[in-house]
């Protein structure tokens, strides 16, 4: 197996993991249940725990709430995040740009764009476009996602007894560590 195919296989695994985490940390509504149909019998319990963790107990699912020291820094970080999204033609529609689900979805999208460029022989400058996507992944992960997501996952683990949310938070921590090594 060539190094290139190993890289593509790894990106395919990464894209699925980012999608899984993004959905798992979004509100457990219809889209959530489509992705996790095995959890349908526990929907009401998941909704109650989501509301308790992220609405009542104030585990903020917004990165700048964990990283910004003041309102000026928060505004600057939000502008930077929006700059990333706009550079790739995206605009968050449902939530703040620094929501963990949005940031995880954005990493999913960057990996998708990179895979598309690498697998499409007909695209002009495909290798350069793939490199731009990889560079954006590294920068976005390091500057916005990694530190905040680790703090959020730690808070979830310490504040819930719910098996699903504990497992997702632990899974996210493990994945973030592997991503940090991969994106060095």
Automatic annotation (TrEMBL):
<dbReference type="InterPro" id="IPR036411">
    <property type="entry name" value="TorD-like_sf"/>
</dbReference>
<dbReference type="Pfam" id="PF02613">
    <property type="entry name" value="Nitrate_red_del"/>
</dbReference>
<keyword id="KW-0143">Chaperone</keyword>
<dbReference type="InterPro" id="IPR050289">
    <property type="entry name" value="TorD/DmsD_chaperones"/>
</dbReference>
<dbReference type="InterPro" id="IPR020945">
    <property type="entry name" value="DMSO/NO3_reduct_chaperone"/>
</dbReference>
<protein>
    <recommendedName>
        <fullName>Nitrate reductase delta subunit</fullName>
    </recommendedName>
</protein>
């Amino acid at each position: 197996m060539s190094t290139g195919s190993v890289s593509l296989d790894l990106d395919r695994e990464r894209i699925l993991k980012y999608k899984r985490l993004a959905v798992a940390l979004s509100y457990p509504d219809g889209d959530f249940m489509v992705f996790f149909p095995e959890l349908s019998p526990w929907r009401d319990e998941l909704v109650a725990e989501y509301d308790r963790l992220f609405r009542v107990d104030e585990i903020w699912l917004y990165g700048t709430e964990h990283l910004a020291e003041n309102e000026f820094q928060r505004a600057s970080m939000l502008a930077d995040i929006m700059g990333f999204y706009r550079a790739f033609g995206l605009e968050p529609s449902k939530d703040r740009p620094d929501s963990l689900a949005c940031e995880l979805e954005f990493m999913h999208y960057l990996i998708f764009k990179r895979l598309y460029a690498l697998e499409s022989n007909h695209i002009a400058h495909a290798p350069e476009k793939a490199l731009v996507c990889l560079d954006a992944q590294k920068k976005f992960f390091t500057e916005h996602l990694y530190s905040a997501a680790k703090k959020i996952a730690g808070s979830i683990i310490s504040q819930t007894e719910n098996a699903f949310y504990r497992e997702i938070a632990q899974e996210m921590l493990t994945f973030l560590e592997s991503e940090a090594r991969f994106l060095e």
